[in-house]
Amino acid sequence: MMKLRWWRVDASEVAAVTAMGVWEAVLAGGGRRFLKRKDSDAGETGRALEELRSSLYNEMHSSEGAKRQQQRFCGPSVALTFNFAVAVGIIMANKMVMGSVGFKFPIALSLIHYAVAFVLMAILKTMSLLPVAPPSKSTPFSSLFALGAVMSLSTGLANVSLKHNSVGFYQMAKIAVTPTIVVAEFMIFQKRVSSQKVITLAIVSFGVAVATVTDLEFNFFGALVALAWIVPSAVNKILWSNLQQSGNWTALALMWKTTPVTIFFLLALMPLLDPPGLLLFDWNLRNSLAIIISALFGFLLQWSGALALGATSALSHVVLGQFKTIVIMLSGYLIFSSDPGITSICGAIVALGGMSVYTYLGLKESTTIGKKPSLAQKPKAAGDGEKPGLEHEDSV
């Protein structure tokens, strides 16, 4: 038995020595070249991965790269669809807050929305996921301050108007935002609207007016609030669209800079427009959870609205808002058997037809603008460049 055990040990040693000899023989041949080539390939792969990581870091941590990423992944159709879906969700959430929960403080609700949005963006910033803002010298602080101020007025007065007026009167006031945007953009940016689009917008406005004419309950104070809301709403959309399209601002970066200003003005508006009794509200778990859900939808609505304004135009965003109203009304008629009346249904159909024509005209003009550089058959002289801002032109 002892001899057999020693034989086994000797056999294993012989096998190990033989294997080492074979390995040395392989290395003496082409093995060293093979390993060297493998090490070289591994080095090249590592360098490629490092370059990819560096390029991705530069894309996400520079204002130009972040703007390119937003344009690449969030075009007009994606932004408008996102905004539409979130808008339907926040209508349900706010109905729950204002109805079953009984939270009757519209300015305070807007303040909670923006405070939650600021906290979420602060978390993204600590995780280095918030897009970088352009240099401060590229956009004066006065522009950011003005945007934050009109955002607070637009959001706050809209909620107060909805509290004191019917949805129909609110929609009638929203129709007035369309001509206000056209006049303001012409006065500020000399931007003209084609006659075809003017006729189409008039048809859309007429259809929305007819669709909502059966619900025009309002009081004197509510009417004053609705009229005061029109100009801030138009200016808000124009500034959001212009700052994103003329600079390297992304939606989240612009929200991060303007939200503190908006919160400041909402704090100033709250004692003026909200009824007393906020601290006496029953802040139980159920009510607080409903308000937080509404605030999360509010953050998504603000973000999606900013994306839509950056990808399209202020007028397109207004038409989208009217489209949401018409779709919700027709959905109630088709799905929940509500009866808005034959007049409202005819108005909704006219509005939808006008919106379809407006979308077609917008796509047609965008295609025409995109083909303009390629139609010019002039050879480009040395040192000549493209006209600045040509790719950001927006015909409305």
UniProtKB/TrEMBL annotation:
This is Sugar phosphate transporter domain-containing protein. It is found in: Membrane. PANTHER family: SOLUTE CARRIER FAMILY 35. Residues 82-358 form the Sugar phosphate transporter domain. The chain crosses the membrane at residues 105-124, 144-162, 168-189, 220-239, 251-269, 289-311, 318-336, 342-363. Pfam families: TPT (PF03151). Residues 381-396 have a biased composition (Basic and acidic residues). It is a multi-pass membrane protein. One of its GO terms (cellular component) is membrane. Residues 372-396 are annotated as: Disordered. Keywords: Membrane, Transmembrane, Transmembrane helix. InterPro entries: Sugar_P_trans_dom, TPT_transporter.
